[in-house]
Model the fold of this input.
Amino acid sequence: MVNDPVCGMAVDETKLTGQSGYSRQAYLGKSEYKGQTYYFCSANCKRHFDHSPEYYLDRQSRPTNAKDDSKG
Ligand SMILES: [Zn+2]
Done:
């Protein structure tokens, strides 16, 4: 499982490979950016990512629990 960088939802990327005989209906969303492959829960999220990938990647890499303890 991987996380959709747009909405944060868990995505089963194995369903995107089509190795299990999944039809195109199971195709959710997949995009490549700077050599990295990203998966999406829906084509809608993929469109958002394709529009501004750096925005979502920056948001994703940002530590969620970062308190500025260096301050003071
Ligand atoms: Zn999504």
